[in-house]
Amino acid sequence: MNWITNYVRPRINSIFSRRETPENLWQKCDECGTMLFHRELSGNQNVCTNCGHHMAITPRERFNALFDNGIFTEVKVPEPLADPLQFRDQKKYPDRMKAAQKQTGEKEAMLVATGEIGRTPIVAAAQDFSFMGGSMGMYVGNAIIAAAEEAVKLKRPLILFSAAGGARMQEGILSLMQMPRTTVAIQMLKEAGLPYIVVLTHPTTGGVTASYAMLGDVHIAEPNALICFAGPRVIEQTIREKLPEGFQRAEYLLDHGMLDRVTPRTKLRDELISIVRLLLGMPQAVKGDLAPPEPTAKPEATAGK
Ligand SMILES: [Zn+2]
């Protein structure tokens, strides 16, 4: 019987698996089910071209679309202690980290960079939901502090893209300590008189909404993003009542005064440029009317002229 399991079955499997859609070419929209050509989808920043559903986007993809010509410089984040609690659930924490690093190609759940948007120098930080649910651990805390310090040093505004399932349980109380730490970091920006803009993306939940994600001067969310401290299921079970339609989604929070804007991802860049320049007292950039920068000229000198 061995030849059946060892030879025939793999042959049959390979014939059938060949008929499946190659993952790298097509992606199915989770919302409307349309098959989207991969290149078309990434060209539209992972927003479905049929129904406008916002799919996940990695910090690197986001920065490529955000910064002028996709050019940015990464800001170094100090490494925290690895696995201080020697935590283990079904797997050891270092093993989970290694798996997440392999899967995402990133070191941790937050990427910090400097660059220009519409010739406006900024510092940006983006959280990576695909890296252990974007969970806020010591590294994320360090990343936000590094971003705030860089912004103060360079006198630039900070734009933060949040996406998190909450604190990282593998770091226990140390992850919760990132709430006051990041709050102090944001306070540094306020004292320096620098704008801090938060873009809340799907999903932003838990301790992140109880600290840096809710301390912005301007709060913008992507459409239909879930933004909450405790999730709808937990609330429903606790109060034993049916929650209203769209509860804790971006549009609902906008209606109830928790947000300033709900902006589609494809329009976000232009809006961020306008807001940042407005808050910095810079003239508004005129689209298509910007001369290429001189290699030696300062960005501020050429912008908006
Ligand atoms: Zn769709």
UniProtKB/TrEMBL annotation:
A zinc finger (C4-type) spans 29-51. It is an enzyme of class 2 (transferase). GO terms for cellular component: acetate CoA-transferase complex. InterPro entries: AcCoA_carboxyl_beta (IPR034733), Acetyl_CoA_COase_Trfase_b_su (IPR000438), ClpP/crotonase-like_dom_sf (IPR029045), COA_CT_N (IPR011762). One of its GO terms (molecular function) is carboxyl- or carbamoyltransferase activity. NCBIfam families: accD (TIGR00515). This is Acetyl-coenzyme A carboxylase carboxyl transferase subunit beta. It comes from Seohaeicola zhoushanensis. The lineage of its organism: Bacteria, Pseudomonadati, Pseudomonadota, Alphaproteobacteria, Rhodobacterales.
